[in-house]
């Protein structure tokens, strides 16, 4: 199968190479999915799990990309809840080969059915951004109607989901980002915008919840907890239902074929929104 691999951490996305490699076997509880579309998080080549397995052994060359939409082709021993030929979407294991490939092996429990009226491109863009926003707002943040949310980096993939889900839950949303992001965050439903390049964040005053995807100095200004997004079939179902009935839009900034993925993920100019890789057209 064709896949994008990385071998050299220092090279970053510029080190992505298109190769021919073996299709993954289905391990216990896995399904193998023929990937139609794959997402990529801009920072994933900085994550330790991209380079080592759970025992901290080098696992390069590795296939990046940890969210996808596709069709189940094989059921491994013990895999339940899904069937061959089923359309699915979801999150894949951080420590295993990922989704920028024609096939990926993933535990069945990490996937959810993708309804026939949601295309694969949209499906691939939902798991990481949608689950991160959902879990941050509702599980970790315990957001209630009437509360205020400060959403940093709100014009990005996660941020756009944060704005929309928080608004739907009855929160007041103050978005932050770069000067050029103002209109986009209003378009996703933000009620105020703080231009981090020009405005003073302290002027915002107290808020109930800060959702920070930017890190750095901003983090030091608020108390909080770190979390890593987890697979959750029921939450994926909630998210995709909102997409179907128009309550939720994804933030896709570009689409590229697998053959062009390395170039597309190394853009010469800033792209606002997520780049989705079309693996199969
Ligand atoms: N812990 C978890 O489970 C989890 C899950 C998902 C994502 N994440 C993390 O969340 C982050 C965002 O992910 P994403 O997919 O939403 O990325 P993204 O689509 O690139 O969005 C990030 C947004 O924040 C903006 N931004 C970054 N630094 C900024 C700064 N200093 N001032 C103003 N704006 C700034 C970006 O603008 P520019 O493009 O101009 O920089 C972009 O609009 C990543 O670091 C990712 O690793 C964590």
From TrEMBL:
Keywords: Oxidoreductase. The keyword Oxidoreductase applies. SUPFAM superfamilies: GroES-like, NAD(P)-binding Rossmann-fold domains. It comes from the Bacteria. Coiled coil: none annotated. Residues 12-277 form the Enoyl reductase (ER) domain. PROSITE patterns: ADH_ZINC. Transmembrane segments: none annotated. This is NADPH:quinone reductase-like Zn-dependent oxidoreductase. It comes from Actinopolymorpha pittospori.
């Amino acid at each position: 199968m064709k896949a994008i691999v990385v071998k050299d951490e220092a090279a970053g996305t510029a080190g992505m190479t298109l190769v021919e490699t073996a299709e993954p076997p289905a391990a216990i509880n896995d399904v193998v999915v023929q990937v139609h579309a794959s997402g990529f998080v801009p920072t994933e080549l900085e994550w330790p799990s991209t380079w080592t397995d759970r025992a901290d052994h080098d696992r390069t060359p590795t296939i990046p990309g940890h969210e996808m939409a596709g069709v189940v082709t094989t059921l491994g021993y013990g895999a339940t809840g899904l069937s061959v030929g089923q359309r699915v979407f979801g999150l894949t294991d951080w420590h295993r080969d990922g989704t920028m490939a024609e096939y990926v092996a993933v535990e069945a429990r990490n996937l959810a059915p993708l309804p026939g009226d949601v295309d694969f491109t949209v499906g691939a863009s939902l798991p990481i951004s949608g689950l991160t926003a959902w879990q941050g707002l509702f599980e970790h943040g315990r957001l209630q109607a009437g509360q205020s949310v400060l959403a940093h980096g709100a014009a990005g993939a996660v941020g756009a989901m944060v704005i929309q889900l928080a608004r739907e839950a009855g929160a007041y949303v103050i978005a932050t980002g770069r000067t050029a992001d103002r209109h986009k965050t209003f378009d996703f439903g933000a009620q105020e915008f703080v231009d981090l390049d020009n405005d003073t964040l302290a002027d915002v005053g107290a808020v109930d919840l800060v959702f920070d995807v930017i890190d750095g100095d901003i983090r030091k200004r608020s108390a909080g907890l770190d979390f890593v997004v987890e697979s959750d079939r029921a939450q994926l179902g909630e998210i995709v239902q909102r997409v179907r009935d128009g309550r939720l839009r994804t933030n896709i900034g570009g689409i590229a074929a697998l053959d062009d993925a390395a170039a597309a993920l190394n853009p010469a100019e800033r792209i606002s929104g997520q780049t989705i890789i079309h693996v199969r057209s």
